[in-house]
Amino acid sequence: MAAAVTQGIGATAALSSANSNKFQFTTRRSLSERKGSSIVIRSDGNPRAGLNQHSNSTRQLVTNAVSTKPESAAASTVSKPGHELLLFEALREGLEEEMDRDPHVCVIGEDVGHYGGSYKVTKGLADKYGDLRVLDTPIAENSFTGMAIGAAMTGLRPVVEGMNMGFLLLAFNQISNNCGMLHYTSGGQFKIPVVIRGPGGVGRQLGAEHSQRLESYFQSIPGIQMVACSTAYNAKGLMKAAIRSENPVILFEHVLLYNLKERIPDEEYVLNLEEAEMVRPGEHVTILTYSRMRYHVMQAAKTLVNKGYDPEVIDIRSLKPFDLYTIGNSVKKTHRVIIVEECMRTGGIGASLTASINENFHDYLDAPIVCLSSQDVPTPYAASLEEWTVVQPAQIVAAVEQLCQ
């Protein structure tokens, strides 16, 4: 049955167009010793980079990298034409552009057809492209994920939607043993250009089973790339880049960010899957974050600026591999690092990032790396308890104050 459906898709494609007070740090140099009494306060900009033609691995680290001051948000809005989209609409626009561009792109998942997906990312696509390029499936994640991997082996470019990322645990065998490893175990005979995407993270009283952060589960699988979107702009750019990639890519979308609105360019753009985004240049401390925590960090940054601190905020975006070029240059400038994530503390992205920074940039650190993560407990249903398990802006402010003493 799966083979018949896969052949049908191919035929259609061919014809279609924690508590912060506990932190204690010992530093070799204080801020006043290195920077004097002056404090540089920069505006919150959002510079964006297009597709980088050079691999991060070929770039040389700049010893004394200094970020330039971006133009103000107001000037940027006025000077840049474009159109406003909600994040889920930007995902849809990116997906639709790629389906127009390449008839091998197809969508597979539960309710992705005429219902339009659980968060309406695929709304209207079944009417436009037909039921075989936008294929509704039974509630059987292991089956349709395996079918998508098989379709990718035959030359298609499937986009798999998990109605909730937690449900994809049912397809862990297919994602790990097939999706991540088939290119290697086949001796390079097969490529697996598949995108796996869907909503995840701690929502609002969704309960433990619907509040999973699976990035920690998938990061150890060889051959898998992972990215996390946080704005409408990077959601579209990362979606297009993931579809065009010859590697399997997992795109993490946060359930609470779908209705964020942003002006994005009218012209086509594609982002680099392995590149972090400099959200706010600063001098005193590097704050690394991604997904929903970007907004908690920026909320904390406003308080920190009022208190005289100048934090540098980086949205790492690429969860695997890390953009050590951007991260390294920031560490060499600020000499202090705080990682803020919604992932669990044990075995999370923050733990891997901490290890990478210590391995590559230990000599540039003036204090131990601080990692603020969700507590290692099932996410409670009660709203007050749910909030308590996730890092809040006040904790970030307190951690920066402790680190910069």
Automatic annotation (TrEMBL):
<dbReference type="InterPro" id="IPR005475">
    <property type="entry name" value="Transketolase-like_Pyr-bd"/>
</dbReference>
<dbReference type="InterPro" id="IPR009014">
    <property type="entry name" value="Transketo_C/PFOR_II"/>
</dbReference>
<dbReference type="GO" id="GO:0046872">
    <property type="term" value="F:metal ion binding"/>
</dbReference>
<comment type="subunit">
    <text>Tetramer of 2 alpha and 2 beta subunits.</text>
</comment>
<feature type="region of interest" description="Disordered">
    <location>
        <begin position="34"/>
        <end position="54"/>
    </location>
</feature>
<dbReference type="Pfam" id="PF02780">
    <property type="entry name" value="Transketolase_C"/>
</dbReference>
<dbReference type="InterPro" id="IPR033248">
    <property type="entry name" value="Transketolase_C"/>
</dbReference>
<keyword id="KW-0150">Chloroplast</keyword>
<keyword id="KW-0809">Transit peptide</keyword>
<protein>
    <recommendedName>
        <fullName>pyruvate dehydrogenase (acetyl-transferring)</fullName>
        <ecNumber>1.2.4.1</ecNumber>
    </recommendedName>
</protein>
<keyword id="KW-0786">Thiamine pyrophosphate</keyword>
<dbReference type="Pfam" id="PF02779">
    <property type="entry name" value="Transket_pyr"/>
</dbReference>
<keyword id="KW-0630">Potassium</keyword>
<dbReference type="GO" id="GO:0009507">
    <property type="term" value="C:chloroplast"/>
</dbReference>
<comment type="function">
    <text>The pyruvate dehydrogenase complex catalyzes the overall conversion of pyruvate to acetyl-CoA and CO(2). It contains multiple copies of three enzymatic components: pyruvate dehydrogenase (E1), dihydrolipoamide acetyltransferase (E2) and lipoamide dehydrogenase (E3).</text>
</comment>
<keyword id="KW-0934">Plastid</keyword>
<keyword id="KW-0479">Metal-binding</keyword>
<feature type="domain" description="Transketolase-like pyrimidine-binding">
    <location>
        <begin position="85"/>
        <end position="260"/>
    </location>
</feature>
<dbReference type="GO" id="GO:0004739">
    <property type="term" value="F:pyruvate dehydrogenase (acetyl-transferring) activity"/>
</dbReference>
<dbReference type="InterPro" id="IPR029061">
    <property type="entry name" value="THDP-binding"/>
</dbReference>
<keyword id="KW-0670">Pyruvate</keyword>
<keyword id="KW-0560">Oxidoreductase</keyword>
